[in-house]
Design brief:
Number of strands: 0
Helix content: 40-55%
Structural class: mainly alpha
Strand content: under 5%
Shape: elongated
Largest sheet: none
Number of helices: 2
């Protein structure tokens, strides 16, 4: 029973932390979420599936268009 309560408490803390991060950020956006920036996720150098940004580009194309 203690393990279940500890697990629920830690999950609640994690969700609260994410909620606070979204609330404190301007427009609720996470910085640097393009998968093209991660060499572990993008080993072939492909463009981001969300915005089309290439790994060599600095800014997300969605932010530029908005």
């Amino acid at each position: 029973m203690k393990l279940v309560l500890l697990t629920i408490g830690l999950l609640g803390l994690a969700f609260a932390g994410i909620a606070i991060k979204i609330w404190s950020k301007k427009d609720g956006k996470f910085a640097g979420t393009c998968a093209s920036q991660s060499p572990f996720l993008n080993q072939d150098g492909e463009a981001c599936g969300m915005c089309g940004k290439l790994p060599s580009e600095q800014d997300c194309k969605q932010e530029i268009q908005a």
